[in-house]
Amino acid sequence: MIHSLFLINCSGDIFLEKHWKSVVSQSVCDYFFEAQEKAADVENVPPVISTPHHYLISIYRDKLFFVSVIQTEVPPLFVIEFLHRVADTFQDYFGECSEAAIKDNVVIVYELLEEMLDNGFPLATESNILKELIKPPTILRSVVNSITGSSNVGDTLPTGQLSNIPWRRAGVKYTNNEAYFDVIEEIDAIIDKSGSTVFAEIQGVIDACIKLSGMPDLSLSFMNPRLLDDVSFHPCIRFKRWESERVLSFIPPDGNFRLISYRVSSQNLVAIPVYVKHNISFKENSSCGRFDITIGPKQNMGKTVEGITVTVHMPKVVLNMNLTPTQGSYTFDPVTKVLTWDIGKITPQKLPSLKGLVNLQSGAPKPEENPSLNIQFKIQQLAISGLKVNRLDMYGEKYKPFKGVKYITKAGKFQVRT
Amino acid sequence: MTDSKYFTTTKKGEIFELKAELNSDKKEKKKEAVKKVIASMTVGKDVSALFPDVVNCMQTDNLELKKLVYLYLMNYAKSQPDMAIMAVNTFVKDCEDPNPLIRALAVRTMGCIRVDKITEYLCEPLRKCLKDEDPYVRKTAAVCVAKLHDINAQLVEDQGFLDTLKDLISDSNPMVVANAVAALSEIAESHPSSNLLDLNPQSINKLLTALNECTEWGQIFILDCLANYMPKDDREAQSICERVTPRLSHANSAVVLSAVKVLMKFMEMLSKDLDYYSTLLKKLAPPLVTLLSAEPELQYVALRNINLIVQKRPEILKHEMKVFFVKYNDPIYVKLEKLDIMIRLASQANIAQVLAELKEYATEVDVDFVRKAVRAIGRCAIKVEQSAERCVSTLLDLIQTKVNYVVQEAIVVIKDIFRKYPNKYESVIATLCENLDSLDEPEARAAMIWIVGEYAERIDNADELLESFLEGFHDESTQVQLQLLTAIVKLFLKKPTETQELVQQVLSLATQDSDNPDLRDRGYIYWRLLSTDPVAAKEVVLAEKPLISEETDLIEPTLLDELICYIGTLASVYHKPPSAFVEGSRGVVHKSLPPRTGSSESAESPETAPTGAPPSEQPAVIPAQGDLLGDLLNLDLGPPVSGPPLTTAPVQMGAVDLLGGGLDSLMGDESEGMGGANFAAPPAGTMPANLGAPLGGGLGDLFDLAGGVGTLSGSYVAPKAVWLPAMKAKGLEISGTFSRQVGSISMDLLLTNKALQVMSDFAIQFNRNSFGLAPAAPLQVHAPLSPNQTVEISLPLNTVGSVMKMDPLNNLQVAVKNNIDVFYFSTLYPLHILFVEDGKMERQMFLATWKDIPNENEAQFQIKDCPLNAEAVSSKLQGSNIFTIAKRNVEGQDMLYQSLKLTNGIWVLAELRVQPGNPTFTLSLKCRAPEVSQHVYQAYETILKN
């Protein structure tokens, strides 16, 4: 099972270590640093590294490396999932998962890590339970604590620990009972030079914010549940109900959580809401090139496409770019060679374009590869897959909650080859 | 207000300040102080000096304070075991607390204090907690058993905790079940032979019920445990599959992958005609694809596993090619894995798409990725015949880019394409030759040379091209050199008239100027072939080559089947069975897929169908390498002895009668009393054999060498003598000597092969002897011994073998076996190799013993012609563990009183009279076992005279 955890920042300092079994020397991290040196980019450090006596399994989150040490055969996914859960918990407790936040709350961090694993076995990883055991820090609480001398560790057994619904705490009470669902869909796509789709799929999630008193039992149904054929559920969802009736039936955790995530695969036709016309060319034996892109709406179901940003990693030989945008603003970082064009909304009457000259290093050969365009956008009030919530019913409690569903479509990994 | 304030007080006297605060009466101050201590601890500062003060804060009703103290305890108890006992009482008390949270906390912390002394106090509280009424305490206690097992396995077994843990599998609470399974699995991993998790249909049913209700982590443990079960028939397999399938929709990817493992394994038992089988196949695809939308680290592990799954059952993902298309901002480790899977999934149906993608990748920035993409194009050509033409033209396009590494990779793969489709694409050779000069990597150069040699008849200037490579022959890597040699020989056979000079040049380069044996051997073979029978040479060298197979990179099927059983584990990431890399390889159990059962057959004739053998019965335990060697020896030299061979264990009388007649005739009258010659098998364990194999050079040199080395340190070593002449042993000559260095005895052997055939499979055994000498390790000759080769081996000996009094006392009968026969010889070992390092007796003791031993046990000897003085004698003898205890001068004579001890504990006392100017010494020996005296005297003589 998980032996130890080291937290390492980008400059290679080990700023926290936690051992759940015997102490493993920090020097084991040298193998990690070695691998890190080999990988050109921090993101390219391989997640599983073997050393003569241990295995190092690491994740890279929020500019921090979470490096765990294991000694026996343990499912690596289990370790990686757990590490992400640790990062999520820090995020949840401190608002951000950063070196500063962790150092500022080092005792809470230690208490949390101790509570999350016992001898390397996960103990309590649900945020609802953890929060009952160890109260998150707030300015108010620390003031109150220092006056009254009370502690931020709960002294009763969290009710959820052993019940059949370990994700929910008991005795929840709200004056305003509300249940909100966000249907968020991201389009992952690769568009080739000619504008045809090489690959596209939709990654969707339904995030919930539930603030309901007591033990509500909810049922969420869809107009077109058939779209959902590849779904991952939060443990609260009753799988049998879904299998037989295609209804999401569950007793929700309290607060924010991800209800389901789903994938609408490339077999179904995925609508692509924008198109790009591009002309990027470099002349042979001259130190300049032309750059011209135009973006237009397409298959956007009548909604406005907004928040558009285009990011381009230009080839290394590019020195500078002299461009004129018809809309929005652009920046070019000559060090990282990243061009960012912030466009905003598209108005179909006047399509935004970015044109101009590219200055290349003189004497350098013409770049082989043409850069890929990475596009970000947002469409409010639309789930691009067409998924629609039909109704939400509540059983088990008498009050009438506020209910709301919001749809949003975003670009995920949306790239256009040129 | 943040915790960083705890780090700020780094001034002098910090520990002192903390101490004061810890002993403060105010609770709040105490707590703050403990927090400061913890904060220092987390950054690696040593605050162990505060141990007693922190432990004093333990008796509190403030839970946070208690937890903090516990945190501290876990960290420092190991370094302060005596202090840790102070905490025991509080633990025992806390285990009885009415609050289950505190009971659980106490039992949890106790187990983390890795101090042996504490463990015994732990047993009673733990026993209670395992039967606690509160499931939260029980589940914590279950894990505690695993912790305790880690510290003291014997204790856990003696106390019967393992049985209690097994009972918890039937607990009413799913979390308790999950933790019990987890704990048992962890314990079982360190005891592969133990039958801890013997699963039967009832316990499986319980696990499946618990599976639905426990946490995600518990589900992983249970699924991994289920995967080890062997269902008794296909119906049971199907019903388990049905109950596991819902886990595929879990949000936790580790749960999903563990479920995939169970399904992949049990599917093996289902008949392919079943509707359920195809339903299951369909259900497996979406969750696998979903794993690819997770974080990159998860994707990586998932991809490594998918790689196995598509090899085992390509049908699952055959329509999902597109999800493996590479995004330019994927981390490199994800990109490479995706590429690999794309090739595995490539088929006639999707090859156009795949090729277009690969071509796109080949223009990316990342060099490693581009290389792999180019290589992938070649693999596609080999895998999908219809696409070969397009692949080749794509590769040619890429060569035109003139990007150096792209060109080189392309040439390497084109070589493979030629091998797969001979006489089809040779028209491109001209293009390839244009790029000859830009090749700087050995693999690409070798590939190009191969092409030139293979198609020499179509390339007009082949000889010029190859000649140009020949100029820098010695700077090339071996791969290129070998290829160049072969290519030129091919060229010669095709165009003999123009290239005679060239071939002679390369042959002489390879055979005379090279240090590489492979190259030399290949050179000689060609040379002899060409000089004896050019026609045969043509047939051999230009023989039709077998086509290269479609998928040379596939994992070998039996390994694949084993790896499928390890889906989701590290083994699946490394694509190696755990036995190949798990630390210490404590005898890892091999897993295998269940055999497929015909649905009708299994129901009616249970005895013919493979009935559900418990997993522990079926797999064989692979012994460690040392054991294997020991076993090998046993197998070869006698009937197998069960269990690992032990030198002390008496082997069945007469069972190993290989000395029998052989020795009788060899020894003549000494054969009496040898009854069933009884050899103890050498013990397990390996030792590095000394493999300095001097090729040429007379044996005489070696003698000198050995002698020289011998005097450097340790006791005197006699020069090697021939023990077994080649005539008597079908060409095997053995010479050797004995040495003793820093407490270990070894037999230094020189094995010379004077026969014409290669010798291998060496093994050695000793007959029982007076002092129980036995090999401490098998005879290790790493490589077969070729004719005229000599190998020098130092065989470590110990003295724990069987004892039988020999005549003469120091006679040792040895049997050596090789692939040809078993040979026997006997030798006399000098007794001083048995003189131990702690043979120095105390003066008083010496006097008492001397008096105590009866006078008839005294023996007197003369040592003649020894010109040394008393000091020199004394120091020389000391080198061989004969210790001078006292020296007296009596009437102008030096009397040295000396003692020595033999390995079997026999003391020998000596009085050595040295008269200045007289080269003859008188030696009186007293010993309770007077038989040894004669040999001790001989030892004296050899030591003093050399």
From TrEMBL, chain A:
- What's a Gene Ontology MF term here? small GTPase binding
Superkingdom of source: Eukaryota
Q: Which parts of the sequence belong to the MHD domain?
A: 176-417
Q: Which UniProt keywords apply?
A: Cytoplasmic vesicle, Golgi apparatus, Membrane, Protein transport, Transport
Q: Does the entry feature the keyword Electron transport, yes or no?
A: no
What Gene3D superfamilies would the database entry show? 3.30.450.60, Mu homology domain, subdomain B
Q: Where in the cell is it found?
A: Golgi apparatus; Cytoplasmic vesicle membrane
Of the GO CC terms on this record, one is: clathrin adaptor complex
Q: Name one Pfam family in it.
A: Clat_adaptor_s
PROSITE patterns in alphabetical order? CLAT_ADAPTOR_M_1, CLAT_ADAPTOR_M_2, MHD
Q: Give the record's membrane topology.
A: Peripheral membrane protein
Q: Name one GO biological process term.
A: anterograde synaptic vesicle transport
Major site of localization recorded for this protein: Golgi
Determine if tRNA-binding is one of this entry's keywords.
Answer: no
What task does this protein carry out? Answer: Part of the AP-3 complex, an adaptor-related complex which is not clathrin-associated. The complex is associated with the Golgi region as well as more peripheral structures. It facilitates the budding of vesicles from the Golgi membrane and may be directly involved in trafficking to lysosomes.
Family label: Belongs to the adaptor complexes medium subunit family.
Protein name per the record: AP-3 complex subunit mu-1
Give me the gene this protein comes from: AP3M1
From TrEMBL, chain B:
**From which domain of life does this come?**
Eukaryota
Look up the record and report any one GO term of the cellular component aspect.
cytoplasmic vesicle
User: Pfam families from the entry?
Assistant: Adaptin_N, Alpha_adaptinC2, B2-adapt-app_C
Question: Which portions of the sequence form the region Disordered?
Answer: 586-622
- Report the Gene3D superfamilies cross-referenced here: 2.60.40.1150, Leucine-rich Repeat Variant, TATA-Binding Protein
Could you confirm whether the keyword Protein transport appears in this record? yes
Q: How does it sit in the membrane?
A: Peripheral membrane protein
Asked if the keyword Hydrolase belongs to this entry, the reply reads: no
* Ranges for domain Clathrin adaptor alpha/beta/gamma-adaptin appendage Ig-like subdomain: 716-826
Which part of the chain is the Beta-adaptin appendage C-terminal subdomain domain?
Answer: 835-945
Question: Per the database entry, which stretches of residues form a coiled coil?
Answer: none
Supply the alphabetized keyword list. Acetylation, Membrane, Protein transport, Transport
Q: Which GO terms are recorded in the biological process aspect for this UniProt protein?
A: intracellular protein transport; vesicle-mediated transport
One MF term from GO for this chain? clathrin binding
Q: List localization entries.
A: Endomembrane system
Give the InterPro entries listed for this entry: AP_beta (IPR026739), AP_complex_bsu_1_2_4 (IPR016342), ARM-like (IPR011989), ARM-type_fold (IPR016024), Armadillo (IPR000225), B-adaptin_app_sub_C (IPR015151), Clathrin/coatomer_adapt-like_N (IPR002553), Clathrin_a/b/g-adaptin_app_Ig (IPR008152)
Q: Where is the composition biased (Low complexity)?
A: 599-611
Query: So what family is this one in?
Result: Belongs to the adaptor complexes large subunit family.
Q: What is this protein called?
A: AP complex subunit beta
